Amino acid sequence: MPQPERLDPDSLADLEERVLRTVELVASLRTERDAALAKLAGAQAAVKELSAFKKAEDEARGLREEITELRAERKQVRLRIEKLLAQMDLVSGK
After folding, report:
1. How far apart are CA 36 and CA 63, in angstroms?
2. pLDDT by 10-residue block (mean), the chain, 94 residues
3. Fewer CB within a 10 Å sphere, N or C end of the chain?
């Protein structure tokens, strides 16, 4: 029966060191991944907030335009009423 090869104690220590480095690397990568995921979640929340802000800004712009139009219309109505009142004054003899 052939004997299995025996590993040199130095090679076992080297293997153990490599395994420990690998474990540390995996732990480090997991930490980096978790940090990146947290950063991504924050960025996604910021994008969502920015999108809501953009929508509110667009709505405010539309409302400003509507206010401007309504003010112009009110001015026209006021002028027409003043003309009608002036005509009524002429008709009534004032």
Report:
1. 40
2. 63 93 97 97 96 96 97 98 94 80
3. N
